[in-house]
Design a protein that fits this description.
Strand order of the largest sheet of chain A: 3-2-1-4-5-7-6
CATH topology of the largest domain in chain A: Dihydrodipicolinate Reductase, domain 2
CATH superfamily of the largest domain in chain A: Dihydrodipicolinate Reductase, domain 2
Radius of gyration of chain A: 20 Å
Shape of chain A: globular
CATH class of the largest domain in chain A: Alpha Beta
Oligomer: homotetramer
Number of helices of chain A: 12
Amino acid sequence: MVRVGVLGATGYAGIEVVRLIVSHPHAELKRVVSQSFVGQKISDVYPNLRGICDTECTALDVDDIAKNCDVVFTALPHGASKTVIPSLFEKGLKVIDLSGDFRYNDAKVYEEWYGEPHSAPNVLAQSVYGLCELHRDEIRTHRLIGNPGCYTTCSILALAPLVAAKAVDAKSLIADAKSGVTGAGRSAVLPNLYCEVNESVKAYKVATHRHTSEIEQELSLLAGEDIKLSFTPHLIPMQRGILSTCYANLVKPMTTEDAVRLYKEFYKGEEFVRVYDAGTLPEIKHVAGSNYAAIGVVVDLRLNRAVVVSCIDNLVKGAAGQAVQNMNIICGFDEGEGLRQAGMYL
Amino acid sequence: MVRVGVLGATGYAGIEVVRLIVSHPHAELKRVVSQSFVGQKISDVYPNLRGICDTECTALDVDDIAKNCDVVFTALPHGASKTVIPSLFEKGLKVIDLSGDFRYNDAKVYEEWYGEPHSAPNVLAQSVYGLCELHRDEIRTHRLIGNPGCYTTCSILALAPLVAAKAVDAKSLIADAKSGVTGAGRSAVLPNLYCEVNESVKAYKVATHRHTSEIEQELSLLAGEDIKLSFTPHLIPMQRGILSTCYANLVKPMTTEDAVRLYKEFYKGEEFVRVYDAGTLPEIKHVAGSNYAAIGVVVDLRLNRAVVVSCIDNLVKGAAGQAVQNMNIICGFDEGEGLRQAGMYL
Amino acid sequence: MVRVGVLGATGYAGIEVVRLIVSHPHAELKRVVSQSFVGQKISDVYPNLRGICDTECTALDVDDIAKNCDVVFTALPHGASKTVIPSLFEKGLKVIDLSGDFRYNDAKVYEEWYGEPHSAPNVLAQSVYGLCELHRDEIRTHRLIGNPGCYTTCSILALAPLVAAKAVDAKSLIADAKSGVTGAGRSAVLPNLYCEVNESVKAYKVATHRHTSEIEQELSLLAGEDIKLSFTPHLIPMQRGILSTCYANLVKPMTTEDAVRLYKEFYKGEEFVRVYDAGTLPEIKHVAGSNYAAIGVVVDLRLNRAVVVSCIDNLVKGAAGQAVQNMNIICGFDEGEGLRQAGMYL
Amino acid sequence: MVRVGVLGATGYAGIEVVRLIVSHPHAELKRVVSQSFVGQKISDVYPNLRGICDTECTALDVDDIAKNCDVVFTALPHGASKTVIPSLFEKGLKVIDLSGDFRYNDAKVYEEWYGEPHSAPNVLAQSVYGLCELHRDEIRTHRLIGNPGCYTTCSILALAPLVAAKAVDAKSLIADAKSGVTGAGRSAVLPNLYCEVNESVKAYKVATHRHTSEIEQELSLLAGEDIKLSFTPHLIPMQRGILSTCYANLVKPMTTEDAVRLYKEFYKGEEFVRVYDAGTLPEIKHVAGSNYAAIGVVVDLRLNRAVVVSCIDNLVKGAAGQAVQNMNIICGFDEGEGLRQAGMYL
């Protein structure tokens, strides 16, 4: 049994890690850290866990964590992770960070998109980008995982096969993403109120969202050339899920069937990526509540352009689920352990 | 491993049985019967199951079922069950019926509320009402279970402790219930359309809903006297869950704390019933997606009246989950097997 | 043209007053007061008003209001009204207050339910309870209107005909009310977040909600005896609307048709109350976005109990609409002026 | 007073025409045609109209319509319009058709996208495309208006200024549109059910949606060259509204401020188009329930690409509202008459 601690456990990503860990056959939840709820049972904050996980929330105590845990998930606000993680990391802990702080190969890219220098570049240098399907082998040999963003996971998985095959014009890429409201976290701020979100849709951070830089890093690696793309996030009145509609001009002519074949080949053997047959497309309902990603492709022959639709649950494959998948990899467990349950559809 | 068949598998209750059975450690799904989707994979109808359950839907063939299954769940429309079940039952199968057809101790009550004579009164006589917390011992010795209705389960669990303690005026009982739309099933009819249900609430079948009779049957048994109550169902714009607000005039004076104590005592040892402490009340979010029921009580001292709020997931504890709980009982498994996962909260 | 000021204009009730006033043929919006948005255009806070009302928000200045307005709507938090209104009232302004501060005939009842003495009992004594259908004549002669609460309006209208006819047992009354989330206001607090409200239902302030006292005041007046009732508010995942399901034991035997006749007689000539024919019941969708109340009655002959279902839009008939209706009355306008638009259904 | 008839009045677009006409100062609703509800009052089908419009639904009778109406709105399923309209048109009626049947300048384009020859090409030749902001002068002189599609209106308004200015690469255009469920109409089919739509998002008819051809027709006219674009519709769990996110590669370098200036100039004097200042973007909530379109632009300097976000209410500016705007034009009324009410925001 691996002993697990969760920092930032009462946020929406943190509590999803807790939910997955308590039903994981090889993990034991030892510490639940939440500054706002110290002394309260996690099941008082999230009563769905009553009788299932009644662990008390504690304040952060690095020594205590180091003594009682083997793996730590950090689901802290962006910026907080990079001040806490170095001390956890030097204690020898395995750390899976859900923030944006340890996702970059180049600290300068971080600085450019986050507006401040990275305070722990040496630790950053020892991290690996935890998109399991692309970096499985490197993840296995690391102790600090920068768990990918939700939008990022969805968009990279959508475009990777075409980009890796050099089948598309690298200057033409667009990812138009639609996210549920859990993606905005549990902050009690006006734009997150029910009556502000419900019966509406909005685009936000157009041309400036930080996840753009992650997607560009990964697609550039796959392409072997510098890729920049348009990424537009939208907020949708639902709880869970991201659907990313991606556009790419083809430089190699192909049909929808060809494209589907390419995707099936690329994701062959990947348990958590479902490539749809030509003529069918995924919906958020097909993956919500699960760690599965679902991808469908249409080639528009009129325009010689591929349209790729991909869906994930932002809290699972886009956060906590992929984090557990990373834990499984670095701990040598079966990669899908604790992650195979079906979404609920309803 | 018990071999399982599901009839009516592509309705909302049926597919929830399928979802639970495929992750049950002691059950194997052998037959998925759906007249409307014969020849299609269940995962084509519900793509959340892709790679998890790709079984092909078949037409009903009683002999085939009898040969290949030990337990059959029937999630058929009311009325259909009572024509199919007798032949399954006489083949020696264990049958758990999710319709209203086998829930009555008295065929006359069925006739009164369903508007036609029961066509198989002899089989009805061999059935037991499957509300596990109240009839566990009888269930164990039966082979045909009338799995309780969703509204019924929620309302009976709410009122049982007060009624059994003879603490309330039997003429004063009211259950005002609010249900998600999955309760209406998957029929493509106007009132179930998104734009007709969303941003609205309605009461329906006021004073005439069939579940009234089930609640009355069970509460009368507990009270040892004839109980009639007002039951009012409402449709709420959400998918899963029922919250039942119940009112009862107290004949024994008590405080909220007394009442909570009574409920905790009554449900002592019941894994799937959570009684809330005085001052706290359950919300649907606390149980949705799980087999747990949650109950809170307030005594209004001004009026000498108890207000009981109870919540379940209508598809789980109110249908498929309780059906699996019944399977566990009649098959001699640990009663909570396959049913312990937490609700998702988000 | 009557000159209008709105205090607390950027809350959900306040902005609804603004929306109604800008299309009112006899009113001119002169002042929009919002402490949080001083100097911003109201249409920057609520862009639906762009080009329709671009008035700048100001801080509260009683002299300025007195000079430029004839009627003031105060949509302030409970408690704030009673400190501001006395000075407005003594300037000779007509004041329509949407808070709970001026709804009581007896300052002691206020104290009992609001937990503090009323700071302006002399001004309170000059106010009238603004439920138009019940107090039209008194409203006409007053300058300070305590505009009724949303739950209150819905529940009183539901029970008034039966109570006034002395047809029901005064001890048996129960109002079980379901409200949309706009009723909780625009406060950026955790329980109002989209992800906390969506796909859930909860009861709150069971046996203690302040609106209970308003309902009791009005029903007692109608009955000529002291009435106490159970009132249970619930929060529903939708924006607008309240549906109140009311229960009353009949002391005069009657059928549903009798009851409907009683209601139609009681509300004869009332433009904004729609009594439904026997066999039909209102839904929130029938009134949302409008000033109409809709009421349906069922008599449960088995139990000799009436079940009354009433619906209003909490922001319109339950707040801003009724406030404008009151303005029409005290200003001598046609009572329905500016209030006749149909709800949107979709 | 112009005398109005509505065909297909009980569909979602038809009833929205009815709602707008009953409060229009210069129009009188004379005939409400609905094959499915002949003999019922429209207010029984849509009880929000009770007391406001209780007109009885009739079957189609062209002579009766011709005798009693001056203007007819046809909100019939695609295909039905072109069989009915010729006879109405030859009677001398003014006809505003909300289907796709009379939107094309070239019957061959219709045939290509609708899969069958146009049965009334001579009548089609006498129609005009009713996008008011682009074709106001032509509309004035016609008697048959092909009222634009909802997606179409939203996307054309978004791209028109850039295309007309020849500022963008005509081969690079993409419109990614998100629509509420009213856009799917009132058909009782499985994909429109609450539980199938709620908590999900899907793309559909990717690269094949018929509205593509309308957008291409209009943008080609503006550009003076043949334009083809990617158009991707998505279904969102809300009732009303379309948000279209459009992408275009710039051939003339410009900043966001330049682009906003271009848009403000293009739409100068247009009452129903709101161009947003640089740094702000519209949300569906800003226009839902109203006839206003709202447009915001961002230039992504990194990529030299414009991202345009436009919003309308699909039932109003995208259907019934624009139809009434067309009626106002062809009848010589003030163009905004009956259409100036603010959206409700909440």
